[in-house]
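sry for the spam today, last one i promise. struct tokens for design, 82 residues
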């Protein structure tokens, strides 16, 4: 069985979260409830370190791919005026 947590929010906090969730839903084509939005963001916090590492790895790979493509294009252009 998974752990279960309960939280208490003031009416003002819930109202503020509802506005944030509505904006998130509109921006992302989602239909999350406040509870589902909170759970999503808690999960994102739990995997944040792995996501940062993956993002850095992907950034580095993209830079290497772009550099190789630029070198190939440079050579193609040089060859075209040989």
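last one done:
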């Amino acid at each position: 069985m998974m752990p279960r947590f309960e939280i208490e929010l003031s009416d003002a906090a819930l109202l503020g979260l509802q506005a944030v969730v509505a904006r998130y839903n509109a921006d992302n084509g989602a239909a999350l409830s406040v509870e589902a939005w909170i759970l999503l963001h808690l999960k994102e916090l739990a995997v944040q370190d792995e996501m940062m590492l993956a993002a850095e790895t992907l950034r580095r790979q993209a830079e290497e791919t772009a550099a190789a493509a630029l070198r190939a294009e440079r050579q193609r252009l040089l060859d075209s005026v040989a």
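The chain has a mean pLDDT of 97. ok im logging off now
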